[in-house]
Amino acid sequence: MDYSWRNLNNIYQHVLKLGMLSPPEDVIASWLVFGSKFNIENFLELGSYLGGGIGIFNQVLHETGHINVKFTGVDHLNFIGAKAANASGAWYTDHFNRCLSAEEIKSLATLSTPEDMSAWIKERCERLTNVPLSVTSVLHEKDAGSNRYDIIHHDYGDGVEENLLTMQRCLPMLKADGIYIVDDWCTGAPLRTWATVIAQQQGLIYPIMWGKNKVFFAKSKEVAQDTIKQICANPEYNGKLFKFMPGSDYFGSGYATIRMHWQAMQWS
Ligand SMILES: C[S@@+](CC[C@H](N)C(=O)[O-])C[C@H]1O[C@@H](n2cnc3c(N)ncnc32)[C@H](O)[C@@H]1O
After folding, report:
1. CA angle 25, 27, 33 (to 5 degrees)
2. CB distance 75 to ligand 1 below 6 Å
């Protein structure tokens, strides 16, 4: 599947089918970043939910030459699985009805262990994407293991303290040249955005690229700036749709960041 900006509408349909909670522009931003990195082997998703994100990230990684990525998904199973089976009227229930078959909803409601969750996500993603998936599910951040991750996707958390704690706990699990993606830089999780700004001010993370709702960070200034160079050297880099952000020298003299011009992408 083509994950470039040339295929925005089909990517949107695919996101709906998989049930990934993301705008398609963010998938395109991820495609550009993953395609610009040399080596991606381990991927941690904080908030794996239905696995829609993992399935699409796996496909995008495959498409960009990273073919044996091992995923770890953290999810406490409060929003999905057996505990959530009796919830009614919730937004998530509507989302289940929108993207899952009756059969899938039935099997989802039986999940009660991380092993159940891994098996359910693997089966569904492989069936819908035709790409082999290696995924291990765990219930808590602390169980994410001693793996060192190339990519961490932070996709849960409401309050400022809670999100800062997640960053403080998970950033040490990221390789020195890894990428930390914070989701919902929109009104989806305003205090997570706030926590991210504080983390930047504390020197924990350095911005690389603003997607639509996902923002990409590194653990050091050097890695952030090297990643910018790698993105610009990617033959798929399109400077009209991924623009240098004026004012980025706020982060240091000569510092560059990129902002995805998603409005232009929607009209291109
Ligand atoms: C917004 S959904 C993630 C969407 C998913 N990443 C995607 O791309 O489709 C958030 C998920 O995080 C889980 N969750 C929320 N807070 C958590 C926590 N503190 N620990 C573990 N899982 C949590 C919920 O059960 C829910 O399934």
Report:
1. 105
2. yes
Place of tokens 């239905």: 50
User: What distance in angstroms lies between residue 46's CA and the mean position of ligand 1's atoms?
Assistant: 6
**pLDDT (0 to 100) of residue 92:** 77
pLDDT in tens, 6-21: 999 999 999 999 999 9
Rounded CA gap, 115 and 12, in Å?
30
Nearest CA to ligand 1 atom 11: 47
Q: Which atom of ligand 1 is nearest to the CA of 78?
A: 25
27 lines ligand 1 (CB under 6 A): no
19-36 pLDDT per residue, tens: 999 999 999 999 999 999
What is the DSSP track for 132-146? Answer: --EEEEESSGGGS-S
- Residue 262 · residue 256 · CB < 8 Å: no
Lowest mean pLDDT among 75-89, 115-129, 133-147, 196-210: 75-89
Q: Give the ligand 1 atom nearest the CA of 50.
A: 9
Residues 6+ apart with CB under 8 A from 89: none
Q: Is the CB of 22 under 6 A from ligand 1?
A: yes
80 Cβ inside 6 Å of ligand 1: yes
pTM of the model: 0.97
In terms of Cα–Cα distance, which of 248, 170, 241 is closest to 208?
248
Q: Is the four-CA dihedral 77, 157, 182, 245 of positive or negative sign?
A: positive
- Least confidently predicted of 66-80, 153-167, 219-233: 66-80
**Centre of ligand 1 from the C-alpha of residue 73, in Å:** 9
- Residue 47 Cβ < 6 Å to ligand 1: yes
Beta strands in 70-118, from DSSP E residues, in sequence order: 70-74
